[in-house]
Request: fold
Amino acid sequence: MHFSLCDCILDLVQNSVEAKAQEIRLILKQSEDSFIVCIDDDGRGMTEQELKAATDPFYTDGKKHIHRKVGLGLPFLIQTVSMTEGRFDIQSEKEKGTSINIEFNFKNIDTPPLGDVISLLYQVMCFDGSFNLIVERSYIDDRGTDSYKVDRKEMQEILGDLSRVSSLSLLKDFIISQEEELKTSWSSTS
Reply:
């Protein structure tokens, strides 16, 4: 079971990377009442049968994690969304990619806490591989939308190799500054 919504999102992005996606788009839309997550990738995708199996907690193909007897990631996520009056949709096409859309309901007392968005974004940007990840993060209220965007390839062009400590430090500082600006605009409009 995941401790926070950010833990769930981290797993989903990792699935996209492991599915050999070259382009991943992560959209995070937050409001007072909900947290909407959209993940689109151009990875291996799944057939209808594979998709059905992926949502079954008692199924694993034994390839991705050879020591596991069950695959609980998506089933736990679907159960969490269902039990907290949220929405979940997954579409996938073999060799084309996968699209996941989730709405978490903050009004439901059983919805897990959001978690650490800064650490989430930092971690997904640092996954190993040659993929690109574009993150669009926004906060929406009755006065409008404040947002920012982080593009992994742009960050690599500006900062260099993301395995270097100096690059990682600058990446984290950038994400922190973007989140602080977003929080400042939220609090100044409240």
